[in-house]
Design a protein that fits this description.
Length: about 500
């Protein structure tokens, strides 16, 4: 999206010409007595004269050329032939012993990243690496009485990536059943999450920031040459410098402190970032649940809490093109001269990160044979964003979700219907390409069914989002509208 817009503009006019026209007209306006705002408007008006307008022939041609060009300096097409090979094995010993249900298993995965340098830093060939795991599980059921039973499950898993130390993940769960109509479950488990392929090996200029993965041998694989301002050259810096991704992790300021410098003009507010290289994330989870039938109502309730250690997150940092962060001189001048690059780094949050939530679902029959159901889900992230403003958690989950449905499979002979309503609360979406609010939305879906036994057929007609209010579920995606459909299913010909 970002590269497409940039390269549409570059197809119309190259950057040097645009900036030359802007600066020339800006200076001329200020010399004529214009204010900064008026001079800026005059400069942009002159530089943007003739720009391709959306829908014009020139815009369409530039758009099509950009989205089909894998060279990100001129186009925006990702050329990705990455793949992975996965192997699973499992053996169950239940036929050998009656003591318990015992299983052992293993898994192996090998990644081969091959984007020709358009996503990963694999411009000189595919990047290969692997990981494996082994596990065992023991499950035993205890009949406590004729109407109650207890099932215990314990497992442990060992996983190892070639980039990180191995991890053990023990888990324990219990399920208690009473009269077949009530089931109580509880579990405590540990787990971990290895950094993804992008966390490790991405190397992509996303416009708002440069994404650089933090695998140790990836830091120098991303390398670009950047022009230095006249102010920087006056300090003895060459007209261009080469900066690698290592600068993001070893010579950078936090974004929030650079913004504070712009607001206050005080270099003392600058804070060194230099984020640590990413490592596996660990989590301890506890869950409790109940499912049962009370008279005519079926209830399903669950609640959970997750406590994270080394939560994998992104941190935006500013790397000056010259100087050493903390020197109080040259690196500060680089920031003041706008001789810097913004990077989105992949690291682990220093803060405590927790998430918790609950859900409840109810279903019953009303008025004889009408099916009524409803469920509600609550999700919350516990993270001190104010104390760590540069960390991005990518939680991307609404706090409140609700769904209800009403239907009857046999409203009258061979005819049924169903109505479904959904509500999702607004939530803030975070991603490497952009952040933004996803507004709350409400949808109503409906369907009718007609069975024709003589034709061995079922006819269906329905629609989604009948309220007609377009919505989207992630920042930067397209809007979702309404859909209407009919179907004819023939069985047992």
């Amino acid at each position: 999206m970002v590269f497409t817009g940039i390269n549409i503009n570059r197809a119309w006019k190259d950057d040097n010409t645009w900036f030359g026209e802007y600066v020339g007209n800006y200076v001329a306006a200020t010399l004529g007595g214009a204010t900064n705002e008026a001079a800026h408007a005059a400069g942009r008006a002159a530089a943007e004269s003739g720009r391709f307008e959306p829908g014009s022939a020139g815009f369409k041609q530039a758009f099509n050329e950009s989205v089909n060009d894998p060279d990100l300096s001129t186009g925006s097409k990702f050329q990705d032939a990455s793949k992975y090979y996965h192997l699973d094995g499992n053996y169950n010993f239940s036929h050998l012993t009656d003591f318990a249900d015992i299983q052992v298993g293993t898994s192996y995965r090998r990644y081969s990243l091959n984007s020709s340098g358009t996503i990963y830093t694999d411009f000189d060939g595919a990047i290969d690496y692997s990981e494996f795991g082994i596990y065992t599980q023991i499950q035993k059921k205890f009949d406590l009485s004729e109407s109650s039973s207890l099932k215990l499950t314990g497992s442990i898993r060992y996983d190892k990536s070639e980039f990180f130390d191995g991890f053990l993940s023990p888990r324990l769960s219990a399920g208690f059943t009473i009269n077949k109509n009530h089931n109580i479950r509880a579990s405590v488990q540990t787990g971990f999450r290895n950094p993804t392929t992008q966390d490790l090996f991405i190397g992509l200029d996303a416009g708002r920031a440069i994404l650089v993965g933090s695998a140790p041998d990836n830091l120098d694989r991303y390398s670009r040459s950047y022009s230095v301002s006249g102010g920087g050259q006056a300090l003895g810096v060459p007209a261009s410098v080469v900066q690698t991704g290592r600068a993001a992790y070893e010579n950078s300021y936090s974004l929030s402190s650079v913004l504070a410098l712009g607001a206050t003009g005080n270099p003392a507010v600058l804070e060194i970032a230099n984020p640590e290289l990413v490592k596996p994330e660990q989590v301890t989870s506890a869950e409790f649940g109940y499912r049962g039938k009370l008279d005519k109502v079926i209830i399903d309730f669950s609640a959970y809490r997750n406590s994270y250690k080394d939560f994998i997150s992104q941190e935006t940092v500013i790397a000056p093109l010259y100087g050493t962060v903390g020197d109080g001189a040259l690196s500060v001048a680089a920031i003041a001269n706008a001789d810097y690059k913004a990077y989105s780094t992949y690291t682990n949050a220093e803060a405590d990160v927790n998430s918790y939530g609950a859900s409840i679902g109810l279903s019953t029959k009303i008025f004889g044979d009408y099916d009524l159901s409803a469920n509600y889900t609550y999700s919350k992230l516990d993270f001190d964003q104010e104390s760590y403003p540069d960390f991005v958690t990518n939680f991307n989950t609404p706090e409140h979700k609700f769904k209800a449905s009403l239907g009857n499979t046999d409203l009258f002979k061979n005819f049924g219907f169903n109505l479904a309503y959904r509500f999702t609360d607004d939530y803030f979406w975070e991603a490497s390409f952009g952040n933004g609010l996803v507004p709350e939305y409400h949808t109503l879906d409906a369907q009718i069914n007609l069975r024709v036994p003589s034709m061995k057929s079922t006819f269906k007609a329905g629609g989604t989002n009948l309220l007609g209010n377009e919505y989207f579920t992630a920042f930067g995606t397209g809007f979702i509208g309404s859909m209407y459909y009919v179907s004819w299913t023939i069985n047992n010909l």
